Amino acid sequence: MSEFNVIGRRVPKQDGVARVTGRAVYTDDIKLPQMLHGRILRSPVPHARIVSIDTSKAKQLAGVKAVITAADMPRSGFGYGKDNSPLKWEKVRCVGDEVAAVAAIDDNTAEEALSLIQIEYEQLPAVYDPEEAQREGAPLVHERSKNNVSFSWTFNKGDVEGAIAEADVVVEDRFRTQYINACPLEPHICLASFDQAGNLAVWVPIHFAFMFRKDVAEVMGMPWSKVRVIQPAIGGSFGSKIDTEPFHFICIALAQKTGRPVKIAFTREEEFLAARPRQPMILDIRMAAKKDGTLLARDVHIISDNGAYNAWGSHALFAAMMSVTSLYRVPNVRFVGDVVYTNKPYGGSVRGFGNPQATFAIESQMDILAQKLGIDPLELRLKNANQPGDVTVQDVKITSCGLAESIEKVAQRIGWSEHHGKGGNRGVGVASLIHVGGGARIYKSDGCGAIVKIDDGGDITVIIGSSELGQGSETVQAMMAAEELGARLEDIRVINSDTAIKPWDVGSHASRSTFISGMAIKRAAEQAKKQLFEAAAQKLEARPEDLESLDSKIFVKGSPDRFLTFGQAARADLLRTGGDVIVAKYFYDPPNVELDRGFFGNVSATYAFGSHAAEVKVDPETGAVDVVRIAAAHDVGRALNPMGLEAQIEGGVAMGFGYAMTEELQVKNGVIQNVSLLDYRVPTVQDVPAIDPIIIETIDPIGPFGAKGMGECSTVPTAPAIANAIYDATGVRIKDLPITPEKVLRALEEAKETSKDGSEGGLIDE
Amino acid sequence: MSEFNVIGRRVPKQDGVARVTGRAVYTDDIKLPQMLHGRILRSPVPHARIVSIDTSKAKQLAGVKAVITAADMPRSGFGYGKDNSPLKWEKVRCVGDEVAAVAAIDDNTAEEALSLIQIEYEQLPAVYDPEEAQREGAPLVHERSKNNVSFSWTFNKGDVEGAIAEADVVVEDRFRTQYINACPLEPHICLASFDQAGNLAVWVPIHFAFMFRKDVAEVMGMPWSKVRVIQPAIGGSFGSKIDTEPFHFICIALAQKTGRPVKIAFTREEEFLAARPRQPMILDIRMAAKKDGTLLARDVHIISDNGAYNAWGSHALFAAMMSVTSLYRVPNVRFVGDVVYTNKPYGGSVRGFGNPQATFAIESQMDILAQKLGIDPLELRLKNANQPGDVTVQDVKITSCGLAESIEKVAQRIGWSEHHGKGGNRGVGVASLIHVGGGARIYKSDGCGAIVKIDDGGDITVIIGSSELGQGSETVQAMMAAEELGARLEDIRVINSDTAIKPWDVGSHASRSTFISGMAIKRAAEQAKKQLFEAAAQKLEARPEDLESLDSKIFVKGSPDRFLTFGQAARADLLRTGGDVIVAKYFYDPPNVELDRGFFGNVSATYAFGSHAAEVKVDPETGAVDVVRIAAAHDVGRALNPMGLEAQIEGGVAMGFGYAMTEELQVKNGVIQNVSLLDYRVPTVQDVPAIDPIIIETIDPIGPFGAKGMGECSTVPTAPAIANAIYDATGVRIKDLPITPEKVLRALEEAKETSKDGSEGGLIDE
Fold first, then answer.
1. Which fold is adopted by the domain B31-124+186-236+241-274?
2. A581 vs B503: CB contact, 8 Å cut-off?
3. Which of A46, B311, B707, B715 has the greatest count of CB atoms below 10 A from its CB?
4. Which ipTM did the prediction report?
């Protein structure tokens, strides 16, 4: 029997039915009195000087309430290095750049008004390739970045060159990854409204509610205190709604200018054009090992094709770097990451945040190395696997660690020994990952506040700082509160939608919600329970320490007949002389406080591990790859809600599969070509392979009930697992994503031609 | 200079502009996905047996999603004595009784469906007069109440008969008051929605959010914990939205049955027909005094014409009784109040809750007594006025008391000495009141919870249990929080709209919000300030006790340059190792805990007093009364927001003026005749006399910053002040409201006929 009453149960998402039946209230469902509709005029050219803007005709259109350009709103810089601005003046730097905006009584009028705005552009030479961008004389996206390198990450520990020189085997490869769109069902949207005193309320699906208001206040020149951020139901984000974007500021400026609420809702085309994609990377990686497979060094240079501005995505190299330094035991690591401006869409945060790119490279190369060493790829991984108690060269402190177990589990499930190395266009491949599992310290605090209130009906409200992003955090938060309180799950409601109501939280990112909000809830619930027990103790004529709770009842230990319901106990507290309400708060900031080292130290309080194994069939005539199934094992610390975890694994694998095989924003001369769900091939439920989710419990020493986060993990190693399986099936190695039939077919043909030289085969850049 | 920084300032209502510009979000502005519209079929007859109901045709109408009768929902009783039920079966007891209901895709369809429901009634003999209703053989509204007396209030202290026997003067009169509708701009409305787990959310303008959910849970057979009550902006209530009504339960039942959100919004006609009116009363009152004017006894019998069911209004005799026992020093008091069923609209709670009726009688009779004694009515009042420290025969403990001062002030402002007793169809009159000023203990707790949260922007959220009813409580609550914290008013927001979020409160009634919620806010703010000062002290390298705050800054005392803003201090608390959020709670239950005596003891923690003086001109040809102006002085303890208080006085006087002069629901054979704003004469801004609001400060020893409540008070003594002025002008005494030109003219004519007998003149019932 479980030691828990609620934790570990298979609980469907509490908002699931509302979402699938259309009953959930999304931002677009909210219609405020006198609300206007905003639309944005975007640059059709990748790099140009703005010669003139004529809005006079648009302003004359009936139903138009405001037309604004950069002259009408703050030009404040925002983003890392303040290189972006809400509306552009002087220059546009990528297609989609915001140049003007309209607020009108309806969407059609706003759209018509856009067509009446006349802009004269003087086109400038543009640069699209991040390597070309660094060459002498390349056009500059931002004048102040001399070679278009916005900034660089460097890490160097140990003696990489020495280790490589002394190694038995060295492999060196270049990998490339593509642009993808996160494709949430709900496109980006924002609704802004000012009250008479100049207080702003913004309804917006967003990860970082409190940071969003800081951004808004800073850019719009308002006190933070005047900004309230409310998040209705969110229709998915997968990281893409983490940034404070130009359209948010524009929406707010239109509301300010018109004195009326303004909503801007992206069309699907606009979502493809203007939502932040996952940034492409070029990854040059050298890995050195001893004959026995012991890893000696990694030497990695990543060029992040950042696009025109530094959004959150400019920091995706942080997660890439951490996997470079800390996936497997590697004593000597050098990492250089260059964030390079190009006149293209600029990257944001998409699930995994740099790690899918890095892990594709590292884990593809682990197989290349295994091949070169003549060691089974599984064995190579197990030999070098991180272990509990390890401290990596980055000083990442590994506590709980299910890496080895995850490798063994997926190998078993995929039938490794049976299928591996058999060729014949059928094969299996494995890949693993490390990711932050308890937040990542991106700000002075990585904390989250919680308030727990127990009412006269025995109902319990958890007001939590973190945001629900569709990942099911509300459900698991309710479970943790129920467990700690000894309450029935159905008595808990979770509220997290409003900065005015919820206590501070840095924001939902880095797979931190379960871990950090969970600890905040657990501790606040402990205190609320104490208040409740004190009230019950008086009524039950017992001492608080002699009480215990189960199913929302408080019992005198050993006397199953002497009990009060939570409602009775709460009323006993309320309805007495000098009564009280039961309300407790807690703020949890994880103990890995290393502000001085920022991203380069022990960034998280725990780390999540996992492995995927893929089975594929390749059609040698067409290059088509049939991904038959994927076993995905993830170390979750403790499985709080296995159903939710399995759903997260399935969703992550589906995203990883799309990343591996079909998804790519095709950008030609800076213009995204495929801006509809017909042309952009996000996998449907028909396309996704069979998924075998496997949960590995390692009971984290710090996390709530032993849990850690894994929201992002399950999308990270899918692509290399498939690439490795294709190699196992065919002997060809695809090093650039996505793995289209064309690439496979070409590689198969090239392999035939080069097969006589006896080397690894496939596309080797060495 | 004021000892306060925020308290005492003239602050406009914080939601004022939103309300007058249509930007406020009322319940009717909320449209949920898939929402249906509900309508109710009401009895057109006052008393009948329901023979049959045929809903088959209505059910077949396209767009109709549910048609329900009492067979389809719980028949639970509710209201005092559980004499009411959501939908009626077997019998209807008044016109407007709910018999069936429809939910359809739009309002027109729902209305059409109603017309397709066929009901056969067998009419029963009805009773409309509350005196006739008590006679042997009268039709019984409820079989279990043998003489149609639902219940009675009795109070007897001292020796009333002895005092009357020994008195120098005894007056005895019968007064009558009428039905009125509270006429909020927003008719009654309710929106109910169930989620997948059977959790119910109800959007509803209501006074008693937590009690509402208790009622809903009990009637609908749900756990309390599953009911969440959310109050959008309220378009006025004046008490009329205090009850949990049949239509609320019906709306919820329709939502349950259809599985979709259902909104029921009263039409204006329905508002007149089915909203609870102020109940008519017949007041027989004897008062005895010594020659010198010293009051000796009051002997009062009130018949409350309760209508068909016991809503909250059945308890209005509580407030009437308190004025009978405690307005002026009266050593011997007998009170009998009978709540009598009739087949008519049933009374609710309208501003003043029984007190406007009682005060009309008492204060009219004080003038009659003065006339008989030959004492100036002012002098008679001042002689008998309650004084601080008095304990009345009901054990009402008077602490702060501005009664005498209010009499003197209004007399001065109205020019008493100049105008009184001059006749010539011009006159002045005065009337006073006592009312609860710090709540009224109607439940085991009279308390209210508050949460104060200070965020990283220095913004402060006050989450308060009480409800904003349009009276401006949010504004004054924000002021109290700002004062206690040393914050700028604009940094405070008040949230009070959601039982899931706010801590428990008994509900907004009995003029308690300022007093009780104010104390809760003050104490919670004290604790939040302590947390904030502790954080600031570390940063400022000072001791918390050496700090002081002003304008949202924390200073080291005596060092105006050493300070942190609230935002900086909150961030200092947040962004440190082991950081914290600033959140504090407090629950305030006033100290007058006398649960055993219920309504008959010291029901409130303080009492509010005041006086109105009216100047009138009477046209002897038409009987038309021109109320020239009204001076209204109210003891508010401390004037927290003089602008808000003046607005409350003005609004109260306007209501009192309508009650006195023009408003009356004309009920004929149980049917309200005037069901539109054209036919029901609520005074417009053109009709209302000039009002001279006067604030009297007595600094209450218990209330927050010395304040007490006065929300209801300002409507209470207007009618008797006008009646007394009319008497002063003409010598005729009108004892039944409203004082129409017809009544005045008739009285003038009768007075001419009887003037030779030298008695008081006018309509004397003795």
1. Aldehyde Oxidoreductase; domain 3 (3.90.1170)
2. yes
3. B715
4. 0.94
